[in-house]
Amino acid sequence: MHTILLRRAVRMALVSPFAFALAFPAFAQDSAPEKKTTDMDNVVVTARSGTETRTKAETSYSVTTIDEDRLRMQAPTSVTEAMKSVPGFWVESSGGEASGNIRARGIPVDGYGSVNLLEDGIPVQHDPALGYLNADQAFRLDETIERIEVVRGGPSSVFYSNAPAGAINFIPRQVGDTPDGLIKYTVGNYSLNRLDFWYGTPVGGGWKLGVGGFWRQDNGVRSPGFDANKGGQLRANLSRDLDGGHVSFDVKHMDDKVALYLGIPMRTNASGDIRPVPGFNGNYGTLAGPDTQHVMMKEGDGSLYNFDNSEGTHVKRTQLTFKFDHDLGGDWKLAESMRYSTTDTQRNGVFPNTLQSATSFLAAQNKYLSGYPGATGYQLRYVDNPSQIYNNANQNGNGLVVVGGLRGVTMPVDEFINDTRVLRKFDIGGQSHDVTFGYYYARFNQDFDRYSSSVLMDAKDNAQLLDLVAVDANGRPVGTLTDHGVYRYGYEWEHASGTSTTNAFYLSDEWQVTDKLRIDGGARWEKVNVAGNTELKQTVNQGTFATSTILTGNGQFVHYDQSFDKLGWTLGANYQFDGHQGIFARYTPTFRLPSLSSYITSPTATPIIQTMKLAEAGWKYSDRFADLYATAFYTKYNNVSFSNYVFNLNGSASTAQTGYADTKTYGLELEGTLYPSSLFDVQFNATLQQPEYKGLRYTEVVAGNPVLRDYQDNQLIRVPKVSYRIVPGVNLMDGKLRLQVSFEHEGKRYVDTANSVVLPAYNVIGASARYDATQQLSLFLYADNITNSLGLTEGNPRAGELASSDAGANTFIARPLLGRSFRLAAMYRF
């Protein structure tokens, strides 16, 4: 039934938004649910500023609100996972609790490079895509968060830096006039144990105190053989209402580590289906394991790099926030937001760089036999059991070898953000102007160190390390090319530091023309200065094959100091027919300035300002029976740069393939909830789009000659043309029991811009239940990926994202969804 409803909704919305409203006459029956308010009555606080509040009905841009109940029923395991209910966003959370990817409205940027992540209206970090440090790594969801507001496009880029495609605002709980709190304990079938709590109370003198946080430990859905996720966070908030204002102080400390899940060996079988290679569990397997948990890697200066994969992505962060609102007199108001944070991140991972048969791998090594007198060939042998010879034809049922990268990245960041707004409402000739003048300042210092070594592994769950052993005609070892499984030490090395300083001025005006018509606009001028030093590299030879091409520093630094500035603006209008229905439209030319990430490992880079034009027009309808939204959008993205690095087994990354392109995307977003009766409802969101590259050309060196590649009109990588999510739910026992099922469809996508490697369409089914045993005690059950879908979310970026070297391969690296898992939670309110 839900599929028929969605198809009907899409068809009607494409014909006419008003026909969409008339498509559901059954909602006018007397059996309607007891829905006391409409969704459009919700107050919106994200991507706007003014002396008065605005509801969704009065908002001239696309915004999705995820309230407390919906958030608890979805129970997302990551920030990225929470965005699955947002149309216009393609999200990928198969990498674990952090390091997710969001692509919004045709902006071809991975990670959080096109949307900013906010907490209580302030950026978690100024640049949410700070090379190897996405904003979702520095933020965790817990019960201190009450709801989420997600703005797509619109005026986000006027009020926030680095938010051309939108802003995701996690809004904390507010303390009431009486003490209350909750405690929630969650267990899962992957050894999950998690405790969340929150408590708020008045403490005298008008002050209110809120405290909360979480602690969690588990093996991960893809268990590496040790704790994959472990840690938590604590926060405390002290606030007080003032005469004509409000003040709050918030401190939060996080010490948490999460696993970074990467691609696994996959194969296309005889029937054309993509499955894991024999001997590998596609739903629960990971190449990371005890053999690669702890490796002392030799460095070029003679020291040892302590690679500890049990650290995963380990973030230690302390965040201090100050907010102050006050009436200045004469109808002027001041709003001040300030945040200081220190974030220390160690990000370790076992990266699958290449996958090939043992036979072809060994054949390619014959050129090194001359270094071992008497050797006639090579064998692969297990590091922990040198007498065990690898079966080239059928070891683990596949006979495959993975060249993996043990990569460690260290990134300490100190950051200060300040946002000052002065607001006033002017009444002129029966019309009003709610005006804001703002100044934004952000400064952060970042260090960056990276070191990687390549290792040989077999292709199985918790892969084991292999040595490459030279043998004589009788199969007796005469030498070992590798060093305890390490093929090449130091194929990556970086040492850099930098400072980014941003100043921005912005203004906005919400002009109430009539009771029904409001026009709002704004502009932002922003300037960023990036300065720093990056150490140059040299190659050293320490006398063995594994240590013969180690990259290390040469003691010389390249200094950079560059500034960029740009002006962007937005103009929108909202016409409200009545309290139930309205239309809006908006046009926004905006930009993303080069950042410290553009330089910190490439000090001689010449980045350009990325500009884009976004347009949207939408219709919204809400009553006791339905909340319905339909938005058509257009995005043109200019001058996005592409650098393609293909892993080279015998050295560092190959020569970069670099190009510039534009993208154009037309699309339609649908979202809403239908309430046929008090017993049944259906939530849905869908995105139909045509995301294309325009002018994507780059030059690749082939056999010493330049070859032009042209991928005009190709589909954006990893972005589907059709995706939707439907969540039907039933309410039983007078609302004490709620059951709901989620069905998610992601259409066909591509690994690379050449569209040479397909990521097939897939479906995912999940379920959740809530039972209110008493007014205080609620029980929750969650089931994720019930059918163990092997939907592929990405291919192997190390094979190249412009033109993948996996094109035409029967066996390859790809990252599927996490396997089926279950969680059970009990929450007690007091």
Structure report:
The chain is mainly beta. It has one domain: Maltoporin, Chain A (Beta Barrel). Helix content is 5%, strand content 58%. It has a 22-stranded antiparallel β-barrel. The chain is globular and about 95 Å long. The protein starts with a helix and ends with a strand. It holds the Pfam family Plug. One of its GO terms (molecular function) is siderophore uptake transmembrane transporter activity. This is Outer membrane receptor protein involved in Fe transport. It is found in: Cell outer membrane. Residues 305-786 form the TonB-dependent receptor-like beta-barrel domain.
Low-confidence stretches: 1-33
State Rg. Answer: 28 Å
CATH class value: Mainly Beta
Question: In total, how many domains does the architecture comprise?
Answer: 1
Biggest sheet overview = 22 strands, antiparallel, barrel
Shape, please?
A: globular
CATH fold field value: Maltoporin, Chain A
Q: What is the arithmetic mean of pLDDT? A: 91
Question: How big a fraction of the residues is strand?
Answer: over 45%
Query: CATH superfamily, please?
Result: TonB-dependent receptor, beta-barrel domain
Structural class: mainly beta
Distance separating the two termini? 40 Å
CATH architecture: Beta Barrel
**Count of DSSP E strands?**
46
Helical content stands at under 10%
Number of helices: 5
